[in-house]
Design a protein that fits this description.
Length: about 400
């Protein structure tokens, strides 16, 4: 049901959960909420959004449209968000009319890399050495030891967008101009051993639970592979990462699901990269490999239901499926060979209902589960080779 800012037959408010954003994360939240008996309402400006297509109600308005927000607050007992670029002002408006998690302040912090890094460091968690570039004179003040580095827009960057690698001061100036002369953060390029992420959930009472540490591989700035449990992360490193993510959540009095991404450096030290105030791509394997998924925990924190510690019952490898897969050897999109992949035991295919495949667009994910990590990895190798994914090269 798609309605322009109003609901003809609003569901019972006390059993309805709302979500700001209609992408795949919202879609999986809606599925989890509906499985637990809730009605759902999605606010998203896209009339054909993946979450809006499966929700009981789709409020089709811009995020800052007051009538749309009023309708969502009227029909939903609680509202959450599915991506960090929903305007914090919208979350703040909703919080005056219904229960909202995470808070507008937490969302605003995660939307700005400068605020985010300052907050993480205030929690005693190290970040990569960095400098702020707000205006042109700041370029000349950048310390030489931060180069080579990566220049990132302070806002609205994700999946490798809004980021340019720079080797020297001249390239830094050129990159800042290419990014539109907007506020940026320059991060020093570090000697990385591996990347990992931690997903925690915290409720309004302060209870915090977490999933096992996940090991991630990115290709061209986009997550390609997640392996859980993380095979190359020492137990002490995992403990420190979980403690850091928990401290960050507690420092914000955070309510909801929070993902913190970390770099493990060549010397074994740990630095935080960024955080997302929502479920995360690296946690999609939890749907098939855990007794409680990250979306189940999002429903529980949104609805003020008890949190339980998740249990991973199968080893898992998650492969991201981008739109490029639909265009292998053909200028026109074709259906990938799903039947061949699904012939493998432990293969779980999730497609997001997006009607048009495009290069770099997240179209779905494939999770391979097994009784042992070795079996799951072997199944992932076979699936990646069958689909001719770039991930096949990093799974050898």
């Amino acid at each position: 049901m798609t309605l322009p800012g109003t609901l003809e037959s609003p569901p019972a408010r006390e059993t309805t959960l709302g979500v700001m954003g209609g992408g795949q994360l919202g879609r999986m939240f809606v599925h989890a909420a509906q499985a637990m008996g809730f009605s759902t309402a999605v606010l998203d400006p896209d009339a054909d959004s993946p979450a809006g297509r499966v929700s009981h109600h789709h409020i089709h308005t811009p995020y800052l449209d007051e009538q749309g927000l009023r309708t969502l607050a009227h029909c939903a007992a609680a509202v959450t968000t599915e991506f960090e670029n929903v305007p914090a002002q919208a979350m703040q408006w909703l919080a005056a009319h219904t229960r909202v998690s995470p808070s507008a302040q937490a969302v605003a912090t995660c939307q700005d890399r400068a605020l985010e890094k300052a907050h993480i460091e205030a929690c005693g968690v190290p970040c990569a050495p960095h400098a702020l570039v707000r205006e042109e004179p700041d370029l000349a003040l950048v310390p030489a030891h931060l180069l080579p580095g990566i220049l990132k827009t302070a806002r609205l960057g994700y999946d490798g967008l809004g980021q340019i690698r720079v080797r020297d001061a001249a390239e830094l100036v050129e990159a800042w101009q290419r990014l539109g002369r907007v506020s940026c953060v320059l991060e020093k390029r570090l000697d990385l051993a591996l990347e990992l992420s931690v997903i925690v959930a915290r409720d309004a009472t302060g209870r915090v639970v977490h999933f096992p540490v996940q090991q991630n591989t990115h290709i061209d700035g986009i997550l390609a592979v997640t392996i859980a449990p993380a095979p190359d992360v020492p137990a002490e490193t995992a403990r420190r990462a979980i403690a850091a993510a928990t401290a960050i959540a507690e420092s914000m009095s955070y309510v909801g699901v929070l993902c913190v991404e970390f770099f493990v450096l060549g010397d074994g030290s740990l630095v935080a990269n960024e955080m997302a105030p929502r479920p995360h791509n690296s946690g999609h394997y939890t749907i098939d490999a855990c007794d409680v998924s990250q979306f189940d925990l999002q429903v529980r924190t949104t609805a003020a239901l008890p949190l339980v510690t998740p249990r991973q019952h199968n080893a898992a490898v998650m492969l991201n499926l981008l739109g490029d897969l639909w265009f292998l050897d053909t200028p026109q999109p074709r259906t990938p060979p799903w039947a061949s992949v699904l012939a493998s035991s432990g293969a779980h295919l999730h497609l997001y209902g997006k009607q048009q495949a495009r290069a770099g667009r997240k179209m779905g994910h494939l999770t391979l589960t097994a009784a042992t990590p070795g079996e799951a990895l072997q199944r992932a190798r076979e699936a990646a080779a069958c689909l001719r994914l770039p991930a096949a090269a990093v799974l050898r």
